[in-house]
Amino acid sequence: MNSDPATAAINQEEIAGNTVSSDRPLQAGDIDTLFAQPAKEPAETVINAVDVWKIYNPGPNETQALKGATLDVFKNEYLSIMGPSGSGKSTLFNMIGALGKPSRGKVYIDQVDIAQLDHNELAWLRCRKVGYIFQSYHLIQVMTCLENVTLPMAFAGMEAEQARDRGVKILKLVGLGHRVLHKPAELSGGQQQRVAIARALANQPEIVLADEPTANLDQHTGQEMIDLLCSLKEELGVTIISATHDLKMLQRSDRILWIEDGQIVKAARPDDIDFSTSEFDH
Ligand code: ADP
Ligand code: MG
Questions:
Q1: Residue 136 CA, ligand 2 centroid: distance in Å
Q2: Cis amide leading into 42 (omega within 30)
Q3: Domains along the chain?
């Protein structure tokens, strides 16, 4: 599914209009792109990654974590990204979430090339536009749940009392209204992941990136987490992008992309997939 920026731009326009123009022959990427449309209209994109490469430690011992990954993420879709360990999922998340710089290629968020943004604009984007949920929660241990959740609000300049009120509201939303003053170590894994979700929602992001959010959770808690992410999408209109192997997450998503060795190799809708094969964890 690699394509040069020009082809990607054409494909993007065509997706928006839901047509492939008849004035040029179908190309290999067209099929994937059409197939990969979300079930719902409109098909407006919020993220476009075009031929993204990421090379760690360039030189004789370099790791090519991404090798020309190209993908579009549509507004208000729930996109799952699946791939074996080491295939580049977390690196891709860092790139499309503006946490790191690609070695080559472009990432657009709301059609803006994020390489063009200055420090302040990037900080604004990371603070307000995107919410991040990590596999290992990344909570600040010396802070209470409420402080963890209100910290990004403080960064965004919200006044303390308003932040506190909003923090309590969000913690209630994720079912932790009774744990606001507890510290992470006093909570179960599932509860800590809820705090991480609450923190990701602090500044009402339009996009939530969740990197294997159910990996450290038991089945029941994992299911609750999926329900919560789905309700964010349905009720708040958030775009959810999640890296996962979790069959239940895959089944609930609108679209699944496969990443292998740093490249997006396949796209499909859950309805078109046979989940009983050994490819999927059970
Ligand atoms: P996944 O999330 O699918 O397990 P990652 O994106 O974490 O994959 O890693 C992709 C490849 O890049 C792996 O070979 C990994 O060892 C390597 N890698 C990831 N982060 C770094 C880093 N900061 N420095 C060097 N190599 C890294
Ligand atoms: Mg990872």
A1: 10
A2: yes
A3: 5-272 (3.40.50.300)
- Residue-level length of the chain: 282
The pLDDT tens digits for 115-141 are 999 999 999 999 999 999 988 889 999
Ligand that lies nearest to the alpha carbon of residue 211, given by its number in the listed order: 2
How much is the pTM? 0.82
The residue with greater pLDDT, 28 or 44, is 44
Integer distance in angstroms from the first to the last C-alpha of the chain? 28
CA distances (Å), 240 to each of 124, 128, 200, in order?
A: 19, 15, 12
CA-94 nearest atom, ligand 1: 6
pLDDT at 157 exceeding the cut of 50: yes
Other Cβ atoms within 10 Å of 251 Cβ, number: 15
Q: Among all ligands shown, which has an atom nearest to the Cα of 91?
A: 1
